[in-house]
Every structure is written in structure tokens, then in C-alpha cells.
Design brief:
This protein has about 200 residues and is mainly beta. It has one domain (about 15-190): Electron Transport, Fmn-binding Protein, Chain A (Pnp Oxidase, Chain A), CATH 2.30.110.10. The protein has 4 helices and 14 strands.
């Protein structure tokens, strides 16, 4: 099968995000200028550099009570900071609750039964008990093609790792089985790993 996205795919559901899998999930926590905490998952997410460490996530779409983009994007525009929390398998139901399109004055931490604690380096909440959290300072917001599609790029200036996820000095993802996004409404978990040496090592 071949199709041009501009012409449509002719399938029951758009296959595009099923082609880019598995995708790590950035559970992005922010705080508005009015002090309202927000927590929302984004699966167009990845790291972009080691030194200094940098990450990106993409915000797509909008909501009725925001003039442009979603609550996370609006809060980041206002404050210049955000935190990326890693999603463990046992947090999947709470994560799913946080996908709900709540009004901008609703605290998703409270709705999902989660606890927010303050970050160390930025005025922003992070998720208590997350396997890892990355405190981020915004570097740029890049408009993309299409309406309300934005790339959010940031430097990671603080990193939290849960002690029980460190095994012999290594951050071991099998200790918490990170949730990954697939296509459609599907998810997966990372429950095994293997190593490959590069030929030129």
C-alpha cells in the first residue's frame, strides 16, 4: 500500500502514529502563572542532545479555553519551565485520567489521585514517586506546519531518579517497566532489554 497523506489513507483509522513506535511518553508537569498545576502526557517526545542534556516534545491541537495550543504549552509560554516525568506501568490508569480535556483551572494531579511536589531548580511541580523526572528550562518553541502544531525544546537542568530504579549504578528500566505509546489506542511496556556492542567499540 502507498498513500499520500494529503489525499487520505482510506483506512478505518489513521495509521501514521502506528508507524512510529514505540514512543516514550513525556508526562509533562507545569504550573500556570496563576498557580494552577497541570499534568499531561505527550508521546511525540525524545531527547535531542547529551551536552548539555536537551529534550523536546510536540504539542498538537487546541482546547476551547486556550487561545492557542493546550494548557501545557500556555503554561510553558508564561513561565519558561516544565518538568518531564517518566511513566511507569503501574501509573497507567492515572496517566490515562490525565489525558482528559479538563478546564485550564483544573489540577490533573488531584483528579488522578497523584501528589505534586516542588522541583529543585525551577518553579514547577513534579510527580512524587515517578521513576525519574527531568526539570527543564525552555530554549525555544518552534511552530510547525498546520494549525496549533508546536515543537517545545528545552535544556534539562535537574534530574531526579528514584533510588530503587538504580541497580549497580545503572538506571534499570525493568524495575518499573516504562509505558510506551503505540498507534491508535494501544500502549506497551518495556519489560526486557539486551545489549549490542558497536562494531567499532
Amino acid at each position: 500500500m502507498f498513500y499520500r497523506p494529503a489525499d487520505g489513507h482510506g483506512l478505518p483509522h489513521n495509521p501514521f502514529n502506528a508507524l512510529i513506535t514505540p514512543r516514550p511518553i513525556a508526562w509533562v508537569s507545569t504550573r500556570s502563572a496563576q498557580g494552577v498545576n497541570n499534568l499531561a502526557p505527550y508521546s511525540f517526545f525524545n531527547g535531542t542532545a547529551y551536552v548539555p542534556p536537551q529534550v523536546m516534545f510536540a504539542s498538537t491541537g487546541t482546547k476551547p479555553d486556550q487561545p492557542e495550543g493546550k494548557d501545557s504549552l500556555a503554561n510553558i509560554r508564561e513561565t519558561g519551565v516544565f518538568c518531564v516525568n517518566v511513566v511507569a506501568e503501574d501509573m497507567r490508569d492515572a496517566m490515562n485520567i490525565s489525558t482528559t480535556t479538563f478546564d485550564k483551572d483544573v489540577d490533573e494531579f488531584e483528579r488522578a489521585g497523584l501528589t505534586a511536589v516542588d522541583c529543585e531548580t525551577i518553579p514547577c511541580p513534579r510527580l512524587q514517586g515517578a521513576p525519574a523526572s527531568m526539570e527543564c528550562r525552555l530554549t525555544q518553541i518552534v511552530p510547525q506546519l498546520g494549525e496549533n502544531n508546536f515543537l517545545v525544546m528545552a535544556e534539562v537542568i535537574g534530574i531526579h531518579m528514584r533510588d530503587d530504579c538504580l541497580v549497580d549504578g545503572v538506571f534499570d528500566v525493568t524495575t518499573f517497566r516504562p509505558l510506551a505509546r503505540l498507534g491508535y489506542r494501544d500502549y506497551s511496556v518495556v519489560d526486557n532489554t539486551f545489549a549490542l556492542a558497536r562494531p567499532d567499540d
